Fold this sequence. Notes:
The complex is a heterodimer.
Chain A: H1 2-5, H2 9-25, H3 30-43, H4 47-59, H5 64-72, H6 80-95, H7 100-107, H8 112-135
Helix pairs in contact in A: 2-8, 3-4, 3-6, 3-8, 6-7, 6-8
Chain B: E1 6-10, H1 33-44, H2 50-66, H3 71-84, H4 88-93, H5 95-100, H6 105-113, H7 122-137, H8 142-149, H9 154-177, E2 178-182, H10 222-228
Parallel strand pairs in B: 1-2
Amino acid sequence: MYRAYAQHPGLYAPRQILSEYIRTRSTLSPRVREMLILRIGFLCESEYEWAAHARAGRGAGLSDDEIRRIAAGPAAGWSPADAAILQAVDDLFEQDRVAEATWSRLATQFDQRQLLDVLVTAGGYRMVSMSLNTFGVPLEADSERFPTSSR
Amino acid sequence: MRRVRYAIIVGLVVGPVAAGLVTASGQQPPASPAHVDAVANDLRLLAEHPALVAGVAPFHRYVSSESTLPARDRELLILRTAALTRSDYVFSNHGNAARAAGLSNEEIMRAGDGPLAAGWSAFDAALLQTADELLAASFVNNATWAALATRYTRLQLMDAVFTVAHYSMWAMITNTTLTVTVNRPIGVQQPAVPPRPARETRHHTALATPRIPPLDPLEWTPAVRAMLDPSGQRATGGCRVSRLRAASGAVRAAANPV
């Protein structure tokens, strides 16, 4: 992926600053961050993003079962707090905004800066998905595929 | 807990902040005042989260005023993205920039109406169609890509995708956090767009051949090399070039996922 983006050095540097912010400096826990990224990558059908972040998600403490259930969606047996995180992504993907009810549930677990970081994480990785799909960035060797039962 | 909600009046909020803007490379952007005002307004919305502003500002400025796209094309993409995401804020905030780029009020409204509205050139229609396809299926179809490629370089093709993608993100952030009172600078209503089709109809087939191929490490610029390969290990043979030349800014090595 980085080698495709490297075709365009002028775009590369500022995009990388945003990507680094989301992955390393936002106020969200790694687990929440990876849940958001995996859900938006799945909805956008970016298998490259899914593969990279299934690995990162396990590093952040997500179990194999949880990663499968992220593909299945917010109704797949999550706690109310986790379901709200996934629902926010679904709201953004379908309506380009987080619905009032979802936002209220998120606000019981996140402060203002974290709420903004939820939006920039899901939005930033929707952007990544659009570019990976459209540029045709090939999967790495031995990449993890989407869970088949969820599609 | 207090919600993140902002009340703003679009069109009245215009920025003397412009003087403080710098680009990722530390240069003043070659932007018209209309662009600078729009960017300054946008970034002020996030002022209570300075780390986020630092993370998003260079890319926001790049897409909104520094990219390789002609300003008119950029604004067409942004206006259609705003209409598709039902973002009154983005649509209105780009009225001035769109007119500065040469679009008439009629064209601004027609951009919101989309590629099927009568009167577009084939290329303009392809630009608008790009936004439609990315918002619907996170993918640009072959026919649309080919139409863009009749005029655009590889860098411009990449910038067109990132323009729609970035403004989609910006619409998601502002749609969710703003309570917008729009004082429309162009005195018109944003066009209505039909609901997005059912998700089951919005799949794409992964490309078998990349449209943007991976760049061979031998062709990386020093700045890209400093980010992708700071130790110089992937440079081979006689091309082990100036590997210690650091990129500007505090960008670390890209050993992390995506």
